[in-house]
Amino acid sequence: MDDLNRDSVESFKNKKKIPLVLVLDNVRSLNNVGSVFRTSDAFMVEKIYLCGITGTPPHRDIEKTALGATESVEWEHAADTLELVKRLKEQGYKVGSVEQAENSLKLHEFIPASGQHYALVLGNEVFGVDQEVINISDFVLEIPQFGTKHSLNISVATGVVVWDFLSKSSL
């Protein structure tokens, strides 16, 4: 790690993050949770909210894919995704559900407003983001897909939307 010139966990925690939190809505796979931690570390995400049945650290299956990112990325468990989203909106976050839905905004059309903080909700591997959460979201963000399958693994979707957000943000 020294050769790669990586920050220590303490140094990383003190760095300015991108104005983005991730909300995992009842994600079942602990490997997916760990992967979201690792992606969040790589792209300087503010915080991850693990909601409902989403597994929480410490757990060896999360650590298997997180590779220590559970120590560097701030996280919190919330029992109810809908209540958390309401609270984030009250705190001034613009909330977007990452989902395929009517009137969704295609990812390439999304431009984050400078100075605005965002929360992106990613859903359950089978059912996606809960419809009640979608209904109160400020927008629905859709990753365009062109193949025969019309879904992405949550860890892949997270990487795509977080990289897109970072590349369009001014840090």
Write the layout of secondary structure elements.
Blueprint: H1 9-14, E1 18-25, H2 30-42, E2 45-51, H3 60-66, H4 69-72, E3 74-78, H5 81-90, E4 94-98, E5 105-106, E6 118-122, H6 131-136, E7 139-142, H7 154-168
Parallel strand pairs: 1-2, 1-6, 2-3, 4-6, 4-7, 5-7
Helix pairs in contact: 2-3, 2-7
Kindly list the characteristics that best describe this protein:
single chain, 171 residues, alpha/beta, 7-stranded parallel beta sheet, 21% strand, Alpha/beta knot, 7 helices
Put the structure in a nutshell.
The chain has 171 residues and is α/β, with parallel strands linked by helices.
Counting DSSP E segments of at least 2 residues, the number of strands comes to: 7
Which sheet architecture does the biggest sheet show? 7 strands, parallel
Radius of gyration: 15 Å
Please estimate the helix content. Answer: 25-40%
Can you tell me about this structure?
The protein is of the alpha/beta class and 171 residues long. 36% of the residues lie in helices and 21% in strands. The chain has a single domain (9-168), classed as Alpha/beta knot. It has helices spanning 9-14, 30-42, 60-66, 69-72, 81-90, 131-136, 154-168; strands at 18-25, 45-51, 74-78, 94-98, 105-106, 118-122, 139-142. The chain has a seven-stranded parallel β-sheet with strand order 3-2-1-6-4-7-5, sandwiched between helices. Helix 2 (30-42) runs parallel beside helix 7 (154-168). The longest helix is centred in the C-terminal third of the chain and has 15 residues, at 154-168. The radius of gyration is 15 Å and the shape is globular. The model has no long low-confidence stretch (mean pLDDT 94).
